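Kindly go through one protein, given below as sequence and C-alpha cells. The question is how this chain folds according to its C-alpha cells.

***
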Amino acid sequence: MAKDVEKAQEDRLGGESSASGMKAWLWHRAKPYTPPWIVTGGVGIVGTVASLPWEGSAFAGVGLTLASVGLTVATWHAAKATGVERRLHSAITVAAGTSWVTCAALAGPMAGPMPHLFAIGGVTLAASWNIRQVLGRAIPTTAVGDSSGLLDAIGLAKLKLGKATVTETGQVRMPFTLEKGATAEELTKVLPNLESATDVRPGGYRVERDPESHRHGVLVGVPVDPLSGTTWYPGPSAPGGSITEPLVVGTYDDTLPLEMVLPKGVHWLITGETGSGKTEAAMDILCEVLTRTDVAVWLSDPVKRGMDLGGLFPACDWVAVEPDDVEAMATAVMQSTPARAEWLRRHSYRQWVPESAVTQTSTAHSCQAGRACGCAGLPFLLAWFEEAAEAFARLDEELFKQAANQIRATGAALVFSLQRPSHDQMSTTVRAALPSALVFGLDERDETLALPGDVLDAGAHPGQWGAGFPGYCYLVEAGTALARQITPARTFRNDPVALEWVTATFADVRVPDAGEVMTSVATAVAGGRYTNRRAALAPVPAAGPQPESDHDIEEQSMGGPLVDPEDDDLDPTVDLEESQDGDDFSLVPEDTRQDLSPEDAREAMEVLLDEWHAQGRTTVTPADLIAYSDQLDRKTTWIKNVMREMRAAGRLVEDLNAKKPGVYKIRPRELAGV
C-alpha cells in the first residue's frame, strides 16, 4: 500500500505542467466539492421564482412552513443510520435552506436582510460540507503491523486492518489480512490483549473468518454490550404456525432474532450452570412450541417436578416426574422410530413434513389404493428431558445409538437439558449424538464438553459469563454459519405467568395428543404409566378443616386417616389386647441367623424391600434397614455398603425432593435388573 501512495505522488509530480494542464488538474480536483455550491445556488433560484406567485400570500406561508418542517423531520429520520454528527449536520442544512426559501417566497429575495442571510448562510453551509469531505478523505485506509505500533505491542504484528465501518447497531467492522503463514486462530487467541489495550469489555471483539481463506476475515468490535438490557418474552412469534417455522427465543448482539428450528437441529443439548438462565430459556422454547399446530410435547421433569415448568404441564401430552416414568418415556421415544417410519412409508412420505400431522385426505398420501384413507396424522414429537442426568442414567445407549440417526426423518427431536455435560453425567456416545446446542454460562473447564472444537477455536467463550450473565448464550445449530454460531445472544426473560397464559390461550391450537402411533408405542412400553398420565398429575383436593399438625397434613394429603386396611375395624380409644401368635414376625428365624451367608442376608434385604413396595411404601432410609441388623447378623457398616451397591444398581434411587438427605425411592426388581 505504501508503494501505491508513492506511485500516486510521483505521477502527480511528473504530470503535465502547462497552463491548460494546470486548469484541467484544478478542475478535476475541484469537481468533487462543487455539489454543495450548486445546491446553494439552486436554493436561491427556487426562493426567487417562488416569490413571483406567492409574495405576501398567507396560504402560501402556511404551506411552505409545513413543507419546511416536513423536509427537516424527514431528513432527520432518513439520516438515522449515518451517525449523530452527520445526521445533525444534514437536518440543520435542510432547515436553514427551506427556511430561507419560505421567507424569500413570502417577502421577496431582496427584502431586508434576505440577500445577506443567503450570502453568509449559503457560503457557510456549503463550506462546512466541503470541510466534512476533506476530513473524510483525510482518513486513509489503515495499514498497521509495523513493530512500533499498538498491534505489534499486543501480539498482532501480522495483522493489517482495512477501513472500519460502523453499523446501525454500533458494531465496528474492520476487514483484516494476515501475513502468509498466519491464521485466524492466532488472531482469536490474542483478542483479550486487544480488549485490554483498547479498554473494551471482555468479549468486545470477535473474529468472523472467511470460509475460503485462513488469512482473511472481519474483526468485529462491540464496545458497548447491547445485550445488557432485559427483554421480557414478547409472546408467541408464530401462533398457529408449524413447528418447522423458527422459534424466536431471544436476540443476538447485532439485534437479529435468536431463532431455533427444532426439526433442523435434530437432537439438542441445553447446558449452563445454576443461575445462567437455562430454565427461562426452556420456558421461552416451550411457549413457542406449544403454540404451534403440529407438535406434541413429552416433558420429563423429575427433579423440580413442575416448580418452574408446572404451568405448561396441562399443555403437554405426557409429563414424567417419577424416575420410573422418565425411563419409560425415554424407552418409548427410542422404540417409536420403527413405528413412525412405517406410518410415513405407508402414506408415501420420505420424511416427516407438516402435512404428515393432519388427517390424511389426499390420495397421494394414502395407505389405501385409489382413495383417501382418512388416517389420523402423525404430529411432530418433542421429547424434552429437564435435568437430564436422570434420563441419561436410565437410557439404553445401544437403543439410543440405533435410533439417533433415524428418528430425525420420522419427525421427532430430543432435548436434553442439564447443568454440566461431563462424562459422569452423560456418556461420550450420547454427547456425540447431539449435534445442536444452546450453551449458557459455564465453568471455563467445561467449555470443551459443551461446544464443538471449531466453535471454540473461532472465539466462542461461554466461560466468560458463568452465572453472572443470565440468559447470555451461544446457539450452535446444524447448517448454521460459523460466524453466527460464535455471535453472543441473550434469551428472553420469562416467568410462570406466561406459561399459564400460553397454556390457556392457545389450547385450541395444539394437537390433543401425540397421535395414534405414539399412543400405541407408549402404551406397549409404559402401560398404565402412559394411559393414566393425566390422573397422575391431577392435584389432590383438600379435605376437611385446615390441618393443625404435620400428621394431619400427611393424612389429608393421603385422602384420609393413615390406617392399614387390616386395622380398619380397630377402635383407637380401646387398649390393645395382649400379643397374639405371629406378632413381631422375624425377618430371619433366630435358629438360622448364625448360618446366614452374605448372599442370603442381601436377599433378605431384597425381600424386605419387595414387601414394603407391595404395601405401597415408596421410600426407605438407612435407619429402616439398620433396624434389622440383629436379625441379619450383620453390622451397620455392612448394611450401608449393601445399600450403596443397591444405589449403583438402580434398586434404590435418591429422593431429591425429600426434606432431608438419605431418603431413597424403592424401584421394583424388574426395573432395576436385580
User: Anything to note?
Assistant: The first strand starts at residue 159 and ends at 161.
